[in-house]
Amino acid sequence: MTATLDTVRLDLGPRSYDILVGDGVLSDAGERIAAVTRGRAPIVVTDANVGPLHLDSLNAAMVEAGIAPSPAITLPAGEKTKDFGHFQSLMNEILGRGIERSTVLLALGGGVIGDITGFAAASALRGIDFIQVPTTLLSQVDSSVGGKTGINSPHGKNLIGAFHQPRLVIADTATLDTLPRREVLAGYAEVAKYGLIRLPDFFAWLEENGRRVVDGDSAARRHAVTVSCRAKADIVGVDERESGDRALLNLGHTFGHALEAATGFGQTLLHGEGVAIGMVMAFDLSVRLGLCPAEDARRARAHLAGVGLPVRAADVAGVTWDVDGLVRSMAKDKKVQDGRITFILANGIGKAFTRRDVDAASVRAVLEESVS
Ligand code: NAD
Ligand code: MG
């Protein structure tokens, strides 16, 4: 069977690549993988949840294209894997296989596996090729596209890394059928983000069809992933290293990051859940500053809540928030420049922009409202 396939191209001159999106595309992707690896086996890196579920179909696709798969490297699942210790053992395992400049890595998993594998590819022999096979909604619409790779340090998340673009991305929406619903919803926050940033028609489509995306309708999922990848590819294509428009992708992330930091970047609040709450705060802040109609903020909140995402910090069970701590944490964000926080605000649905001179009292008021 040949799966219905959308191809999104990320144009970056010699570093351009295709993102293949569709239900079942992995099964048909052997030839595309072989074209990158020149018919040889890539070194597959996966995690302990994803390997048992999806490694067989990847290997079957490669066998069909004449590739004899080599044993995969399986890392523990979860954010804790993105650390120095696991990076060291991953690098030693890769180098122990006697690699050459032409060796290709393949990341099969969510953003954790994509980020650490991409960074390994950027580092091994000063840079070898890699392929992304993202298996979470978040990684399909966000982390697998754009070339940010890296690991965490005790000083903060994603502080060690490199820009290193993949050679190919294979986003098979069928792999999402095994993803826990809470993870699907967390990824959905990033889907909605593209609508809120610059695609008002897509946001209106999501208001009609978002539930189908979350519930697993394959045509709706393909459309949502394709539009999201197109949106990210368009932005990265003009601003690969985040000196301008790429910052818009941080809508909701400065607030969300502070909430995640306060809850230890764990299961209490998933990244996408923090982003959902943070996007609502960004719209509320925009309204408070007189920049955005209240009706648009209401729509953003109603849609995210409607699919089942948290929209207020107070929605997060079992946490007592410390607003002063959140304010301090925001001031330490990676996006701070010359001591000023860059906020992503909006003039309405699909009309996001960056702003650096936001008064502290308004920010605090929005936080107070969200936690109470
Ligand atoms: P993840 O990789 O931890 O995956 C979430 C959970 O789902 C894990 O337990 C994983 O084992 C499991 N899983 C993955 N695919 C599955 C499947 N198909 N079926 C069942 N279970 C599955 O987390 P994530 O949300 O995919 O990614 C988060 C990471 O991505 C963070 O480290 C974040 O910093 C990073 N990120 C990077 C970028 C970037 O541009 N590089 C952008 C956004 C996020
Ligand atoms: Mg994000």
Structure, described:
Catalyzes the conversion of 3-deoxy-D-arabino-heptulosonate 7-phosphate (DAHP) to dehydroquinate (DHQ). It is an enzyme of class 4 (lyase). By secondary structure, the chain is of the alpha/beta class. The protein has two domains: 174 residues, Rossmann fold (3-Layer(aba) Sandwich); 191 residues, Dehydroquinate synthase-like - alpha domain (Dehydroquinate synthase-like, alpha domain, Up-down Bundle), CATH 1.20.1090.10. It contains 13 helices and eleven strands. It has a seven-stranded mixed β-sheet, with helices on both faces. Strand 10 and strand 11 form a beta hairpin. The chain is globular, with a radius of gyration of 20 Å. The N and C termini lie far apart (53 Å). The mean pLDDT is 96. The structure holds nicotinamide-adenine-dinucleotide (NAD) and magnesium ion. Magnesium ion binds next to helix 10.
